[in-house]
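On clarity, I found the account of how folds are encoded harder to follow than it need be. Since the whole study asks how a given chain folds, the encoding of that fold should be made plain. For illustration, here is how one protein appears when written out as sequence plus structure tokens:
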Amino acid sequence: MSQAMQKLVKQHIECDDQLNRVEAALQKGDMASAGRNFRLFNEQLEDHFRLEEERLFPAFEQATGMSNGPTVVMRNEHAEIRALRDEAYAAIEASQPEQALAAIDTLNVLIQQHNVKEENVLYPMCGGSIPHLAAVLGFGGGCGGACSCAAAAKEAAA
């Protein structure tokens, strides 16, 4: 697996770890900590989703010509994850730890299923299809701007 793909997987793990911190705080009844940790989780999740939705998915679609393939499924799942995230956050904000924990349990299952598909299907497809993937994702790599890597990164960001 390329370093770019490894960084995406690392983001999955970091989001999972942060959501586990939320769950632990809720189980202790520490709503303030749960709220802080949930906001951090949300920030990490949105950063990851933006990277995929604004860079990875368009680059994959352009490289493969598949605009109605796996990226559509992943975008739909992102929407489902966001809806559950909002439900969990509303429960945290309303100081309803039991409801928040129930939403987070469902959210955890959905995220794990989603991550397995990305890590075992989509990411390998992207790695084999997208030239200069690290540059496209903004992870550096490539030539430092002296070749087509810079153009690929600019094109993906546009």
Observations:
- Residues 142-154 have pLDDT under 50 and may be disordered.
